[in-house]
Each structure stands twice: as structure tokens, then as C-alpha cells.
Please model this.
Amino acid sequence: MPALDQILRIAGVIEESIVDGPGLRFVLFVQGCPIHCPGCQNPQTWDSAGGKAVTCKAVLDKITQDPLVHGVTFSGGEPFEQAQALLPLAQELKSRGYHLMAFSGHTLEQLIRREECRSLLELLDILVDGPFIEAQKSLDLRFRGSKNQRILDMKATRAAGWKPVLDELHDRAER
Ligand code: SF4
Model:
């Protein structure tokens, strides 16, 4: 049984969203980001001591109480700064059949070098990777803020030996 008493620091949640990944999703905004991209829309999530502390179990209970939600998105802040604490939650969600997506300001290639991040990557369906680059900002992109960011199909990426494979959503315009 995964350690669902793990403590997460979070900035907040959206219980039902249709703009943070495919389908109706629960969005968990993780607190703390060391990347500090110029032009970041959520600088209030940078301070790793900010936000509030919750257990994985409390988040799981909130997610599972809504029968309409079938997907969960880890956003931020930088979710992979708390990869170890997110892991039991991700394992439990996957075992219950949820679709899992995460955003990261790091690239896949950077994340796979860190063991705890790799364990979390093993469980994802979609990763949107890379920092926000203001010079490449576009409002026409779906689920990403700048053109350098990639929407990766993680099942295909793992099958390719961690060679990044774009998801079919990557080239779809916002609307
Ligand atoms: S990685 Fe995301 S949260 Fe962190 S500074 Fe960049 S845009 Fe903001």
C-alpha cells in the first residue's frame, strides 16, 4: 500500500477543469518552483515554503469524491520538485484507472536523470515539458504557453526507450 500519509505542499486545486488536459480533470497546483521563468503566470507558486501542507490521502479523497472526473493534472509550481511525495498519490490514481498528466519546467531529458522523477514519469500518460519562454509565447497553443514546450505521449515515449514522442494533442491548435 503506497504511503498516502506523505505530505505535499500545494498552492491550490481546481476540482473540475476542461482546459488543463483532455476531458474533465482535477488539477493539483504544487507549491514551489526554482526555475523562475521570466513572464511566468504563477509567480506566487515559486516559494517552496508557501501554499499549504496536505496529505496525499486528503487529495485522493477530494479527487475520488467526484464521479465525473477521470483525469488528474499535476501543475504548478514545479510538480517534479515534489516527485517523491507525489509518487504514492500517482500510484494510487493509476491503480484506479485515472488518466495522469503533468507539467514541468524541466525537459524530459533533464527529468529522467533523477530517480524519483523517473518513477513518476513511469506513471504518466502525458507530460508537457520545458520552461516557459516569453519570446516563444503563443495564445494559439493547446495546453502550453510557449512553442518550445512539448506535449509528450509518455506510453509511446517509454516504449521508445525514453526517446521523446509527441502526443497527437501537440499539433492541435487551442480552438
Ligand atoms: S516552470 Fe512553470 S511555474 Fe515555474 S517559473 Fe516556469 S512557468 Fe512558472
Remarks:
- Residues 7-159 form a domain with the TIM Barrel fold (CATH 3.20.20.70).
